[in-house]
Structure formats: structure tokens, C-alpha cells
Design a protein that fits this description.
It is built from five helices and four strands; from the N terminus they run βααβααβαβ. It has about 110 residues and is of the alpha/beta class.
């Protein structure tokens, strides 16, 4: 049985923003691991979804992450739960995503 496949799997990078990362323990390790996942997503041509929690206050996604993205079109949110954001759910549905690899800040 195949658990993940390219047709319905994507990567979700949650809130890897300037102010949030300033207080993150092992910040460089976290960033390196996210970059590895972004590289794998590119290798397997998986869609990538980026979210930003209230970027006006918390800043944008870190430049180190942005430079590894095929495009930078973050979903801005005011809810901690991505599933409470209509734009996020529309993105999942339009891409046909049923499996999501989750990484980032507050990604639990």
C-alpha cells in the first residue's frame, strides 16, 4: 500500500517568520531541516504551501526559506489553525492534496 504519492501530497511550511524565529531554540537547525524538505519537494515536484501569521506584526517568511521556494505566495492568516482559514482550504482542494507534510513554527 502506498502511503504518499506525488498526486496528492504537498509540503506545508508554517509561519517561519522573522520575529517567531528570533525566539526559536536551535534556529539554524530548524531552518536547515526546512530547506532540506523544500529541496525534496522540488525533487519530487510536490506543491508547497507557505503560511504567515499576521505578517504586519511578525514579519515575513525568512529570506533563507524564500530563496528555496519556486514562488513566494504566502497564505496570510490570523488564526493559528490553518484549517480555520478559507484560503488555505481552497488551496488544498485546488491542488487535490490529501497528504500534507508539515514543518515550521507552531506546526504541532
Amino acid at each position: 500500500m502506498e502511503l504518499l504519492n506525488r498526486k496528492n501530497t504537498g509540503l506545508l511550511v508554517v509561519d517561519v517568520q522573522e520575529k517567531l524565529m528570533q525566539v526559536m531554540g536551535r534556529k539554524e537547525r530548524v531552518i536547515d531541516n526546512i530547506i532540506k524538505l523544500l529541496q525534496l519537494s522540488k525533487l519530487f515536484t510536490l506543491p508547497i504551501i507557505i503560511t504567515e501569521q499576521y505578517p504586519k506584526w511578525l514579519g515575513s517568511t525568512l529570506p533563507d526559506i524564500i530563496e528555496h521556494l519556486p514562488s513566494y505566495e504566502p497564505i496570510t492568516k490570523l488564526h493559528f489553525n490553518c484549517c480555520d482559514v478559507e484560503t488555505f482550504n481552497k488551496c488544498l482542494n485546488s491542488e487535490g492534496l490529501r497528504n500534507i507534510i508539515v514543518t515550521g513554527v507552531e506546526s504541532h
